[in-house]
Design goal:
This protein is of the alpha+beta class. It has four domains: about 110 residues, no CATH class; about 90 residues, PAS domain (Beta-Lactamase), CATH 3.30.450; about 80 residues; about 150 residues, Histidine kinase-like ATPase, C-terminal domain (Heat Shock Protein 90). The strands form three sheets. A five-stranded antiparallel sheet has the order 2-1-5-4-3. The chain has a five-stranded mixed sheet with strand order 7-9-10-12-11. It has a two-stranded antiparallel sheet with strand order 6-8. A hairpin with a 2-residue loop joins strand 4 and strand 5. It starts with a helix and ends with a strand.
């Protein structure tokens, strides 16, 4: 029973008792006055009831306004009642409601604007709690790590990108670090914020691959041009003098014994060949700098994989390496520079074979696999996999560094040339360890 009902019941009982007591007292004195007393009690009850309703009106308004606020209904206002006290309350409530409605619209508009900016931002944005449970990711981050938001939201970060989760646990709030993932570099910045009193983490991920590659290329282009110019000028002149000396040595030293003459000619020949090798060495570096613009054409990528495997067939047999080629039954046409893509496949296959050769245990699987498959209706995946030792921590961290190599006699040109050709075509490229051991290089080619 509500307080309002209790009070009305109290008034009714009170007036009934007063009417009964008055009637009983007046019955003996003047029975006709009983009707007057009952009329007075009825009027008194009505007046008390009306005054109570007016007194209860602010409480009713408070209850209605509380219901509106509970339902977050900020559009319904209260009408004036004509009572100054109640109308003052109504005015305050309506003003508060207008302010709340305006603020809610402003917050919603800012929220929509912020979400639009986050979705359109080229910077990857990740929101998670302190336990690294993912709360939100934007499309840029989805594209960077090839994941789907609905599959990762609500799960812990390490279940999808374990190395990235390790980085998040290692760096502190406000710190930044460069992160390498699948032959791509990212600058990761970790920040914190509080929502509803609970600490959260926001991570900003910016890809540096293209910017770093461009700046590195500009730097080594200048160095190689200077070195090539100086080396070619020096070696060309020196080699010309040596060849002249070889041609005219019988006139310069006619009395030289035959055995000394042979040594003299051999020394000049070796020096000339070494200068020629040095010139060729510099031309290989200059070839990376002067990479021609791709001339795309349509061709079957499966045939190109078979051709590449043929080039290394004898080498693989000599080192007991199984070379596999996996292609679809039907022709899979792509649009690219066939000559340059052949160079990419040649370098990747050569690296894969050398990785398998470096494994001393001959009892394990020794194989290199070239494969092509359709990823979706618009792209094709070309992969070169090996069962070698894979990439160690140093190689994984520096795989994008120009001229970096893990081979004792390597020059670091092959993979750098691959990067340049792939970047010139606009193809995606990744190089990472396989789950079963070894490494996997993959190109994603748009059709």
């Amino acid at each position: 029973m509500t307080l309002r009902t209790q009070f009305i019941l109290y008034l009714a009982v009170l007036h009934c008792l007063l009417a009964a007591a008055s009637g009983f007292a007046l019955w003996r004195v003047h029975p006709a006055w009983i009707l007057l007393v009952e009329a007075v009690c009825g009027v008194s009850f009505w007046i008390a009831f009306v005054l109570f309703r007016r007194f209860y009106e602010p409480l009713r308004l408070l209850k209605s306004s509380a219901d509106f606020l509970k339902e977050t209904d900020f559009s319904t206002t209260l009408l004036p009642t004509g009572q100054p006290e109640t109308d003052a309350l109504v005015s305050v409530y309506n003003t508060m409601l207008t302010t709340l409605r305006t603020e809610r619209v402003r917050v919603e508009e800012k929220g929509i604007l912020l979400q639009t900016l986050i979705n359109a931002s080229p910077t990857g944005i990740l929101l998670c709690d302190e336990s690294l449970t993912v709360l939100s990711v934007n499309p840029a981050l989805e594209a960077m790590f090839a994941m789907i938001a609905k599959d990762i939201i609500g799960n812990r970060l390490e279940t999808h990108i374990a190395p990235f989760a390790e980085l998040m646990q290692r760096i502190s709030i406000g710190a930044s670090e460069v992160f390498t993932h699948k032959a791509r570099r990212f600058k990761v910045h970790k920040a914190g914020f509080v929502e509803k009193g609970v600490p959260h983490i926001i991570v900003l991920v910016e890809e540096l691959t293209d910017e770093l590659r461009a700046s590195e290329k500009t730097a080594y282009q200048r160095i190689i041009r200077v070195l090539a110019h100086e080396v070619n000028n020096s070696t060309g002149a020196a080699r010309s003098l040596m060849e002249s000396a070889l041609h005219y040595e019988r006139y310069f030293v006619p009395e030289m014994p035959d055995d000394e003459r042979t040594d003299f000619r051999d020394a000049l020949s070796v020096a000339s060949e070494r200068l020629a090798g040095l010139g060729e060495f510099m031309r290989e570096y200059a070839h990376v700098v002067r990479l021609p613009t791709p001339k795309p054409q349509s061709f079957d990528i499966g045939e190109l994989l078979v051709t590449t495997a043929t080039l290394f067939g004898e080498v693989c047999k000599a080192h007991n390496i199984t070379l596999r080629v996996i292609t679809p039954n039907d022709a899979m046409m792509i649009y690219a520079d066939k000559v340059q893509l052949q160079q990419v496949l040649t370098n990747l296959t050569k690296n894969a074979i050398e990785a398998v050769q470096g494994v001393e245990d001959t009892t394990q699987d020794r194989s290199v696999t070239l494969s092509v498959r359709r990823r979706d209706s618009a792209s094709v995946s070309i992969a070169v996999e090996d069962t070698g030792a894979g990439l160690n921590a140093s190689a994984a961290a520096n795989i994008l560094t120009p001229f970096f190599t893990t081979k004792e006699t390597g020059q670091g040109i092959g993979l750098m040339l691959v990067r340049e050709i792939v970047a010139a075509h606009g193809f995606a490229f990744s190089l990472e360890n396989r789950a079963g051991g070894g490494a996997r290089a993959e190109m994603v080619v748009a059709q």
